User: Which sequence fits this backbone?
């Protein structure tokens, strides 16, 4: 077996933008986020409000909408109570709870422009506050509708990657490989993959990046799964490496997938990474596709992680 070697300094250092400092762990997390914490930012960042509302979780977003609706009605109910519920035509009693509930539900009906009619303002001041709330309701519901549309219309990549990458036999040599599958039923075309090796170079006392050549870096159609392979030949930076060498070099394989979503007619991206501990040796992926009784090709997405001895 040839002696393991690091890529020579004559090779280009394809810095991905993560910098050359040695980051403990990984530079790119499994979900594609970057292992970088930003400091020095202001607590209130109004310029990120739209981005946060678009990208936050669904239940959190709905909870925030409900909380905003509730607080708005509480504030306007307090305004109506301060004006005096005697300025409203209403069927309720004169106790504080009756007046507070009437004020709250009148606010809710005004904000949503429902207006059942059993409570109505009888003074100019009460009418003016109700008109202001109606305007606020129209604007807020238009904004909420736009946010909901933005959340649903934004394309999301839902690719499932194998939990581990492999170094397995490949056409008489070995290859570094992983595979992934589209979990959505939509059609992806012109799928491109790029893989970069990040490792610690003790001579330079810095982290270096080398782009790995792939068996193929693009496929036009993606109806099943794709096993991305980097052949480990004499031209490969990984030639002669063993698992201990990957661990010693703190190796990380950074993956970027680019595809065109035929449903949204937009380009989507997804990232992930594999560190040295997530690379298996001496195994290969099990086939994910079989033929059904009707002769159609079937694929079991749950088998994307399945391996067998090589």
Assistant:
């Amino acid at each position: 077996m040839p002696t393991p070697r690091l890529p020579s300094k004559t090779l280009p250092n394809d810095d991905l933008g993560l910098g050359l400092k040695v980051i403990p762990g990984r530079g790119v997390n499994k979900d594609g986020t970057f292992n970088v914490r930003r400091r020095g930012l202001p607590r209130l960042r109004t310029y990120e409000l739209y981005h946060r509302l678009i990208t936050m979780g669904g239940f959190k977003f709905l909870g925030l909408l409900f909380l905003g609706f509730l607080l708005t009605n509480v504030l306007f109910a307090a305004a109506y109570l301060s004006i005096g519920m005697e300025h409203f035509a209403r069927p309720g009693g004169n106790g504080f709870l009756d007046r507070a509930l009437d004020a709250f539900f009148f606010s809710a009906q005004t904000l949503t422009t429902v207006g059942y009619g059993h409570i109505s303002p009888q003074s100019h001041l009460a009418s003016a506050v109700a008109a202001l709330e109606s305007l606020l309701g129209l604007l807020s519901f238009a904004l909420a509708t736009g946010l909901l549309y933005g959340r649903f219309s934004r394309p999301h990549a839902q690719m499932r990657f194998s939990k581990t990458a492999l170094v397995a036999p490949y056409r008489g040599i070995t290859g570094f490989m992983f595979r992934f599958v589209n979990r959505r039923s939509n059609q992806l075309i012109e799928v491109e993959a790029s893989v970069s090796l990040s490792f610690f170079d003790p001579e330079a006392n810095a982290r270096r990046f080398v782009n790995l050549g792939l068996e193929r870096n693009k496929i036009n159609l993606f109806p099943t799964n794709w096993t991305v392979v980097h052949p480990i030949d004499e031209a490969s930076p990984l030639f002669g490496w063993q698992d201990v060498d990957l661990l010693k070099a703190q190796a990380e394989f950074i993956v970027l997938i680019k595809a065109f979503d035929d449903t949204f007619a937009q380009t989507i991206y997804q990232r992930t990474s594999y560190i040295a501990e997530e690379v298996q040796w001496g195994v290969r992926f099990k086939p994910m596709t079989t033929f059904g009784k009707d002769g159609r090709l079937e694929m079991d997405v749950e088998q994307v992680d399945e391996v067998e001895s090589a």
Remarks:
- The chain has two domains: 46-153, 159-309.
